[in-house]
């Protein structure tokens, strides 16, 4: 588990990374509930934050590829699968802690107004994995960290808009409402809406399963590219 | 008994053949120097040997075991020093070693001991807690080597480990390599510096365009071309015309231009020295002329038609 | 003459920066197109102009707030990396090169913004009012933003810090400009959202040209802008002298 432990060492060496991890989630806890949806706004937007945080974390693998330390690793007795798996596991742990802090603060700040925090936590944790998969797949398309990260910002906002995070998908033309189901953000938004409207917990099944499937698809895509 | 046995290795990138039926044996305990011009396929060969990427056909045995079936086991006993400096810039020297040691399965007290020994060995003990960003070029190179030594490999592959450093650091590194070899490590070494090979290697393999074109001790290789001599000619104006005329002489094998100097490799006692002189005179002033016995560099030149450091791989 | 020539070549280099263009040209166009899907002929309440027009204005100015990254990148690349020794050795003052960067980045940004403006005019029939005035306003706002960013990059020690300041500045402008969520009521916050940042100031002026109302607001904004430009130019020169020579 060397790779797993060193992810923490490397990531937290830069104090700014800790700030980056927590400042946005903590800030968005305090955004009040707006006209839509019936849940404090930050908790609906959180999926976009997760995409952003996952992108920052996943950047480590791109760094390894660009500075060729991955080449060295591939000469060592560690399989590429092990490498990816240990990295992802570490990122998942980090994001889960962030999710926990986020939901916990939410309960303190919003109290009764925050519907079923446990379900929200489950949704966020599953979506964290989807987001990590997405960042891995995204980075496999690029050679430079900066480029990948700066374009990603725009892509995340667009996915948020189209996926029903910024406004209900029903506001968009009919044909788009079907198409945006192909975006992971749609399912994240869908599941927080289910919680917000207090529908039964078992309705969460479909979105959660779809998010996991997205995660697997992204991982397969992202792990195809190995070196150089 | 060979530590490495490569048979008929072929590697293609789309239609381009990078390794063309390579046969190569490396004996236990030797330092094998691998020479070749840019794009000869050295790095591809090394990567195939280290199990980083596969090959299209052929077979590799390392430590007497078939590579594909025993990949992880073999990798555990190989060290690779990469051509680029592949260190984690956000980890200290010590942590870098701890990471790579850990990846090779070392842990606890044993890992700690190995890290200290390795740092001592490459002379970086005093800098253990510094980030590589604070290191000089030579120190980075040494740490780059150290990361491949921490698990004490039986077989060490070094891909141009001395590129772009000062002579002092280079000497230190070469000394380190010699010591490792004395301790029983088998080493495969590629470089652009022919002096290094002459100093270190017990055997030399020369590659060009995906083929091995020569294989033997330095003496053997030099002997191969002992019937040749090198004429060095320095003229005022080395025109293409002049080169063309020289090339047409009987017994001339290679003519190469190096600024104002022309190097001619020609058969010994062919009387070409006189002829070269008279032709050169037609083209104006001669600054100097000399004839020498061949060196390893000339072997390389004769075989590949290229100068080792032409264009340099030091990109 | 040298200044023009240098600007010209920087401009050409910028034309090859596809990532910059993707972010500052294609992204706003994409966002506008998505937002158009839901704007759907609605009318924005307090201003009485179509929602689509407001979206267009907001997007154009929102992206101008980040245009200063161009200046920052080129100052770093040419004047703060090893390239600087080459530039220093040229027979023309280093400040000239800084001006050249400023000029070409501003123009490039104006050009990009105008392209987005034209896109909204032709595709969504957005009424921008007098295009001459729009051009002037965009030029002014862009120039001020470039100055802000050049202050960042020259004023702080580490480039990373400057980058963060830039991002923070852009986001703060959008937040104060009430792009994401309304600020609380009260005279203080209403002042903040109207005059505290280049984004709101630019919007004030554009909305005045579109509607013909709130002219005094626009004039105050213009005065603030000119004062801001002067102050920023002076501090930029000060920081530049400290850092570049």
Structure description:
The complex is a heterotrimer of chains A (228), B (315) and C (245). Chain A has 10 helices and no strands. Chain A is mainly alpha-helical. Chain A has one domain (2-8, 21-222). The longest helix of chain A has 31 residues, at 80-110. Chain A is globular, with a radius of gyration of 18 Å. The two termini of chain A are 24 Å apart. With 315 residues, chain B is α/β, with parallel strands linked by helices. Chain B folds into 2 domains: 2-222, Rossmann fold (3-Layer(aba) Sandwich); 227-293, Alpha-Beta Plaits. Chain B has helices at 42-49, 71-75, 93-103, 108-121, 137-146, 167-182, 194-200, 218-224, 240-247, 272-282, 296-304, and strands at 2-13, 16-27, 31-35, 57-62, 65-66, 78-81, 155-159, 186-190, 203-208, 211-216, 228-235, 252-258, 261-267, 286-292. In chain B, a hairpin with a 2-residue loop joins strand 4 (57-62) and strand 5 (65-66). Chains in contact: A-B, A-C. Chain A binds chain B through residues 2-3, 5-6, 9-10, 13-14, 67-69, 71-79, 227, and chain B through 50-53, 72-73, 75-76, 78, 80, 82, 84, 86-91, 95, 99-100, 102-105, 147-148.
Structure annotation, total helices of chain A: 10
Topology, number of strands of chain A:
0
The rounded Rg of chain C comes to 18 Å
Order of helices and strands of chain A: HHHHHHHHHH
Structural class of chain C: mainly alpha
Helix content of chain C: over 70%
Q: Approximately how much beta-strand content do the residues of chain A carry?
A: under 5%
Give the topology string of chain C: H per helix, E per strand: HHHHHHHHHHH
Beta content of chain C: under 5%
**What is the 3D shape of chain C?**
globular
Low-confidence stretches of chain A: none
Helix content of chain A: over 70%
| Number of discrete helical segments of chain C | 11
Largest sheet data of chain C: none
Total of domains of chain C: 1
What's the assembly state of these chains?
heterotrimer
User: Which whole number gives the mean pLDDT of chain A?
Assistant: 88
Largest interface: A-B, 21 and 27 residues
């Amino acid at each position: 588990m060397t790779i797993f432990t060193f992810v923490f060492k490397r990531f937290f060496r830069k104090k700014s990374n800790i700030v980056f991890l927590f400042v946005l989630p903590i800030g968005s806890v305090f955004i009040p509930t707006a006209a839509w949806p019936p849940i404090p706004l930050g908790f609906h937007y959180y999926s976009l934050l997760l995409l952003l945080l996952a992108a920052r974390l996943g950047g480590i693998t791109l760094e390894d590829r660009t500075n060729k330390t991955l080449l060295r690793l591939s000469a060592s007795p560690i399989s590429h699968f092990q490498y990816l798996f240990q990295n992802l596991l570490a990122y998942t742990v980090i994001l889960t802690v962030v999710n926990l802090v986020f939901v916990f603060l939410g309960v303190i700040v919003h109290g009764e107004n925050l519907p079923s925090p446990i379900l929200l936590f489950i949704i966020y944790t599953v979506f964290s994995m989807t987001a990590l998969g997405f960042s891995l797949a995204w980075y496999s398309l690029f050679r430079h960290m900066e480029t990948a990260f700066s374009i990603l910002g725009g892509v995340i906002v667009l996915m948020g808009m189209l996926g029903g995070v910024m406004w209900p998908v029903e506001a968009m033309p009919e044909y788009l409402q079907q198409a945006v189901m192909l975006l992971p953000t749609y399912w994240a938004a869908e599941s927080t809406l289910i919680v917000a409207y207090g529908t039964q917990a078992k309705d969460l099944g479909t979105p959660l399963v779809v998010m996991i499937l997205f995660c697997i698809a992204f991982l397969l895509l992202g792990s195809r590219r190995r070196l150089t | 008994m060979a530590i490495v046995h490569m048979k008929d290795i072929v590697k293609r990138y789309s239609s381009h053949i990078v390794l063309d039926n390579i046969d190569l044996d490396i004996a236990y305990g030797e330092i094998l120097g691998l020479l070749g011009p840019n794009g000869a396929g050295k790095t591809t060969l090394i990567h195939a040997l280290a199990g980083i990427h596969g090959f299209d056909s052929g077979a590799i045995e390392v430590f007497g075991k078939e590579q594909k079936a025993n990949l992880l086991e073999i990798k555990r006993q190989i060290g690779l020093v990469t051509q680029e400096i592949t260190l984690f810039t956000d980890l200290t020297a010590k942590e870098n070693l701890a990471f790579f040691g850990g990846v090779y399965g070392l842990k606890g007290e044993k890992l700690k001991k190995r890290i200290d020994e390795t740092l001592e060995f490459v002379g970086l003990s005093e800098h253990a807690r510094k980030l590589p960003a604070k290191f000089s070029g030579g120190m980075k190179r040494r740490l780059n080597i150290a990361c491949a030594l921490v698990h004490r490999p039986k077989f060490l592959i070094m891909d141009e480990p001395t590129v772009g450093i000062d002579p002092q650091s280079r000497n230190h590194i070469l000394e380190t390599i010699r010591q490792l070899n004395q301790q029983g490590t088998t080493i495969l070494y590629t470089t652009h510096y022919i002096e290094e090979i002459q100093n270190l290697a017990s055997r030399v393999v020369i590659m060009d365009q995906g083929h091995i074109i020569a294989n033997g001790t330095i003496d053997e290789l030099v002997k191969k071309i002992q019937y040749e001599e090198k004429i060095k000619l320095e003229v005022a104006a080395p025109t293409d015309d002049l080169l063309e005329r020289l090339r047409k002489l009987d017994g001339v094998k290679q003519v190469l231009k190096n600024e104002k100097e022309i190097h001619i490799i020609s058969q010994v006692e062919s009387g070409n020295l006189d002829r070269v002189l008279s032709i050169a005179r037609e083209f104006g002033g001669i600054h100097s002329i000399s004839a020498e016995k061949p060196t390893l560099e000339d072997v390389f030149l004769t075989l590949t038609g290229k100068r080792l450091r032409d264009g340099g791989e030091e990109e | 003459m040298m200044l023009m020539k240098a600007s010209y070549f920087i401009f050409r280099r910028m034309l090859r920066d596809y990532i910059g263009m993707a972010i500052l040209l294609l992204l706003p166009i994409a966002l506008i197109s998505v937002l158009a899907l839901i704007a759907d002929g609605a009318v924005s309440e307090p201003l009485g102009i179509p929602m689509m027009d407001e979206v267009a204005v907001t997007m154009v100015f929102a992206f101008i707030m980040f245009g200063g990254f161009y200046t920052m990148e080129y100052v770093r690349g040419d004047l703060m990396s090893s390239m600087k020794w080459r530039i220093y050795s040229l027979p023309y003052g280093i400040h000239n090169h800084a001006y050249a960067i400023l000029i070409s980045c501003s123009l490039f940004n104006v050009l990009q913004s105008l392209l987005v403006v034209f896109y909204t005019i032709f595709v969504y029939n957005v009424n921008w009012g007098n295009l001459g005035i729009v051009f002037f306003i965009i030029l002014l706002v862009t120039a001020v933003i470039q100055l802000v960013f050049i202050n960042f990059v020259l004023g702080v020690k580490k480039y990373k810090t400057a980058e963060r300041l830039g991002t923070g500045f852009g986001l703060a402008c959008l937040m104060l400009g009430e792009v994401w969520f309304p600020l609380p009521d009260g005279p203080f916050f209403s002042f903040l959202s109207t005059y505290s940042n280049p984004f709101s100031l630019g919007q004030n002026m554009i909305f005045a040209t579109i509607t013909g109302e709130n002219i005094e607001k626009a004039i105050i904004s213009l005065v603030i802008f000119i004062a801001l430009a002067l102050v920023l130019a002076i501090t930029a020169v000060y920081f530049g002298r400290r850092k570049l020579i």
